Amino acid sequence: MVEPENTRLGKMLLDEITPVVMVLRTPLVEESCRKNGLSFIEMLSPFCNFNNIDVPVRTASDHPYRLRKFKLRLFYASEIRQMNSEVAKDRLKQVVTHAGDRDISELCSDPPAIETIVATSELEIVPSWFQTFNKQLVDAVSFSEHESFDHPVACLVAVSSKDQEHIDKLVDLFDTNQLPSLLNDGAMDPKILKYFLLVHDNQDDILEKSTGILTEMRSTFGAHDCRMLCINSSVDGSEEHHENPWASYRNNALHKKQFGCFINVDDIEELKTTMQDLSSKHIIPHMELKIRVLNQQVSATRKGFRNQIKNLWWRKGKEDVPDNPNGTMYTFSSIESQIRVLGDYAFMLQDYELALSNYKLISTDYKLDKAWKRYAGVQEMMGLAYFMLDQSRKDAEYCMENAFSTYLKIGSGGVRNAVRCGLWWAEMLKARDQYKDAADVFFRISVEEPLHSAVMVEQASYCYLLSTPIMLRKYGFHLVLSGDLYKKCDQIKHAIRTYRGALVVFKGTAWGHIRDHVHFHIGKWSAFLGMYDEAIKHMLEVLACGHQSRAFQELFLKDFLRIIQETGKTFEVLRLQLPVINFALTKVVFEDHRTYASSAAASVRESLWRSLEEDMVPSLSVIKSNWLEIQSKVLPKKYKESNVCVAGEAIRVDVGFRNPLQIPISISNVSLVCEHSTESDETVSNASSSLINYQNDTELRTVSVSGDFSLDTPFFTLSEVGTSIQGGTSILVQLTVTPKTEGTLKVVGVRWKLSGSVVGIHNFNADVTRKKVARGNRKLKQSIKNKLEFLVIQSIPRLEGVIKNLPRTVYAGDLRRLTLELKNPSTVSVKNLKMRVSHPRFINIADQEAMDLEFPNCLKKHANSSESYNHVDCAKAPNSVFVFPETTSISADTPLVWPLWFRAAAGGSVSLCITIYYEMEDKTAVITYRTLRMYYNLEVLPSLEMSFKISPCPSRLQEFLVRMDVINKTSSESFRIHQLSCVGDQWELTLLHTVDSVFPLEYLIAGQALSCFFKLKKCQTRVTTEDNLSSLVTSARADVRLGDSDSRLFDTSISPLILFHHHERLLQEKLQQEHQSTIDFILMSESQNESESGQPRSSEILSHHTCHCRIASTSPIRWLMDGPRTLRHDFSTAFCEINLRITVYNSSEDHLSVRINTVDSTPTVIPVSSAASVSGNEEGWHDLSHLSDIKLTSDLMRSKVGKALSFESVSSFVWSGSSSTRFKIEPLSSAEVPLQVCVFSPGTFDLSNYSLHWNVLASGEGGDDEAGSRVTSSGTCQGHSYHITVLQKD
User: Fold this and answer.
1) Residue 83 has pLDDT above 50, yes or no
2) pTM higher than 0.70 for the full model?
């Protein structure tokens, strides 16, 4: 720690605990001093502070010491009294008010950063007026009767040389009736040192006269105690001082004259000499003498063991005396008062050890006498003495704590003394770097009076800031607390100042509620003072307070709008936080060679459009690279690095606004802020040039009430919208700018007006443009593209397209004809049109003649096949580009109308993308081609769900049983089943039952299920793959009518049915991994329901396609054993030989090698009596016609046969011939193999003990050379059950 006298407390004590000089003067003395704008004391005071007096002093010790610093305090006799509490409050209020008026300029400047504040020293960070305020608090308890350091040590009596009867004047000035009460009441010794001064005014009197008066005074009062002071030696009163000693009194000046204007250098030197002579030759020696005298008296009466015992004996029994706040009345002649005077005089002469010893001596006496105020005062001085001696810190703090507590114990009479004690105590702790403890002391001395408490709490906050470790939260909290107290005292400027200081702490933290509180009150108080710019700046910070309650949000917004209304102006605010710009929703849509039929089309991913257009745009079919490289080939070089847009075509910017509040807000006049420049003129024309002039995000700009923003300029036109945003929601506002002339257009930002009061402006930066742009999510290079800058070119044709009658909601399978209509508003024609659809399952482009056909009759079969709609080659069906006829051209007068086929192929939400390519007739245009992108979204509801199960006929190779299950999945719609067709001319389909038995009702109502059976027969044995792909035709035998017999059947082999079926076939092939032996079905139905008005509406056609239904098992071969089922034979002559044959069919498209293996084993012999059981309930197809000839034998015969069989040791039958037969079968063909079995006894035999083993031969290995064939797959099939009955021939 530094030397105690160099600390702030040490300097304070050297200023406050110093000898007091009572000043008595005549009115003429005061008049002479007033010529300089000063009072008599003000003129003398600058020369009462001696920083290097160097006077030897000897008190009670025999060893003198030198006094380096010394000060006198001068007071008029009328001022030597305790200050009234109301006067003290007024003075404190004046200090605070004056400091607030002086610091008002700082309220509009930005506060320093917290890092800067932390690194700042205490002298720079703590307001300087705190010292003045604290001095006023100390002065408020001056001249107490129990503290002799405020009692006058000497009396300065001054008369003017212009006064009459000078001796009588001097005597009359010291009249006891005019002296302070301290002298008259016995609190102090009235016999004080007197020093007589004759003031000579060189402006009004001659020096010789004054010299005579001085001689008379010295003869009366003594030559040593009288002196003459000459002032006002300047002739013209224009004296200027380089270092004016009275500069500190400037604020108290009564006129505009310079202080000391009549006092020259000689007068100043005489003033210095006079006051130094008074100090060193009179006051200091007088105090030395009194200290020595008092010390001798105290030593004789109180010091020593005997005196101490006597004192304790004399004070014995005083413990029973009731408490008295002021204690026993002590006169100046009492030993207690003498000891106190001795200690105070020693303290003022800086002999702190002597002062401390006497304070300790008297402390016990006051405590025993229960003179608590005097006891507390002594304890206070003991703590200060300990501090100045730099001795025990613990003892010093104990004494200050004891004094503070005792003052508060007294009650209201000791509060002001407690405040002074607390101030000195806090400064003591601060000098020892105990800032945290000092803050606690400041907080303890904050009394009930709000202004006093506000200053103390603020001083405590700075202690928290200067403590180690730093306590930022407490610093900010106490600043806010002091600001609230300042506001209660109407000290709004100080409230703003402290709140601004706290704001630095809470800025950038998660303490949102307290930060909003600070901003809101600064804004509110600034508006009260008329600082509207500062008020609005802070109120803007609390607008987007989503974390606050609804009540606070309404309060903040209401007060903000009220402040704006009070100004009578319209403000532009950059980055207005209400509403918040939602960057996640912001998107830019513009058209160059890509145009959009709707806003929904612009929202589709760019990669999807490019995949559709890659075979249409000439450059894309050759160059497989990014769009920028392609554009450089198509467009001129100067357009490479620019976003190109066309004059007269709008650029759309979708701006997302989010309301962070719980209350709704309204925004109006929402528009873009743009700039336009031409190549020939570098000047910029923009809708509002204010945006570029902002220096920072918080700057405000005042505009007129009506605003200075234009939506329609010679260069572009802006759109303007208004809307309201509900609490906690986000909306997307679509804004457009339409350029009118060629040049460069830049979208700078967006502006809006909040609640019709304040204009918000948001400046787009490079990050915004990297969000979802209509060109896709690709990352653009750092160029002017990222700045929303567009190159505007001359107007070129732009097609407008729409698909008429496209429903938004349909049932699955719905088939209808639509109309595509293309218009060209431009006078320049377009040609070379191409078109492509993203989902050919849903939309197929028809031929132009389809417009003239009647739908749906054009899809039905006619008696004359030439009248039906043309058949279509399915080889053209894949998703290819449709090229319009070369003669097709679209101009302004002739729109193009083209038919389209639509079918709802699958349920769910379906997005259809259609792109149309066209070229300009004008080859000089910058862009020679464009594409029109169309997007539609529709909901496909489930309708009919069908499934098929195909089982092969065991008795016939080319026949199958088909079971169809149909379920109506709708909730209210009914359907009429019209027909079922199988695709291909090699099939014949017939219904097993009559139509009436299958469909008892005309319609299949909602939720109803239906099953029906068909017989499928193959008419053609071989169809190649090429034939199947090139033409999916159906014959008349492949269609089965299921509905009205009067209506014609649909021709499923013509467009669009065959085209849609081909796409379904391609899709289901990928999903099911097509088997070689499959068949496709098409179910035609009609929906018939009443419209909303109750009138029947026209029927709607639905087609349902099921492809790749398997007609074979996993094995590629099917076989059938043929032979007799019943025969008679005479076993008595020989065994029975039966000839059989197996027909094997290859259902695959590969060459097969088949081997038939027969196995001889004891078969299951069924007695002839049970032969009839063969015709029992067995599942599947069984031909039982051969069993009709069975005749039962007699029981005798049966018994004989059974008896014979039981003794038979051989098998009942054996296979004759080769046990293994191998042969090859061509693809989709059959082969017959003869077999023979020998039966040895009558009975019914199951000839299933054989197997067929097949191998698939590699391609090209189908010759006879078996060794050269390469097997790729194989399998084994067990023989079918085949029963034969042999009877004994009669």
Assistant:
1) yes
2) no
